[in-house]
From TrEMBL:
Transmembrane segments: none annotated. It holds the Pfam family Carb_anhydrase. Its EC number is 4.2.1.1. It comes from Larinioides sclopetarius. The keyword Cytoplasm does not apply. This is carbonic anhydrase. The keyword Oxidoreductase does not apply.
Amino acid sequence: MLLFQVHFVHRNIGNKTAVVGLLVEVQNGYNEAFIPIIQVLPEVKYKGESTYLQSRLTLSEMLPENPASFYRYIGSLTTPPCDEGVIWSILRKTTYVGRHQLDYFLRLYSVAKKDRSRWCLLAENYRPTFTPRKMSASQ
């Protein structure tokens, strides 16, 4: 079952944006690649908080098999200011987090600490697409 996406947002010198989307499922066990992120999630539970990773994050270890297989389209950022003209590449294969690892992500809020309520958790935080998109597939 697909649970969430991880977005790696990249900007070039000309301020053009590309996003690589990683689809994440829940499975038994632990995914070691996510540990550096999960370690610091309690420090960034609320919008506007920031911290530094305590250990090295190796992005290539987070990727599924055959990351060269993906879907691509031109869209927008998913958070304000929702800029248009973003090149999205969504990897076809999924990666995973363990059931216990998922609990850390489900404790995150979409608002500042002073505005929190249980209705502001990031769970089920999604929006419909705004316009039809032309998609292409690799390979």
